[in-house]
Amino acid sequence: MEKFIITPREDKSVTMTIRIDRTIQERYNELSARTNRSRNELIGMALQYALDHMEVKDTSD
Question: How far apart are CA 26 and CA 42, in angstroms?
């Protein structure tokens, strides 16, 4: 009989506190309700998208 092997799950998430405008929070609440995704998941997706598509301009131009 083969063994049932369980390995520890690597948790890469961290807890972070930010302050945002109330209207942004309300929009994420609405989006969360419409998409059946958690607000946390949506914000994480938005942050990843921003990082992947960000362009930093040199201020010396």
Answer: 13
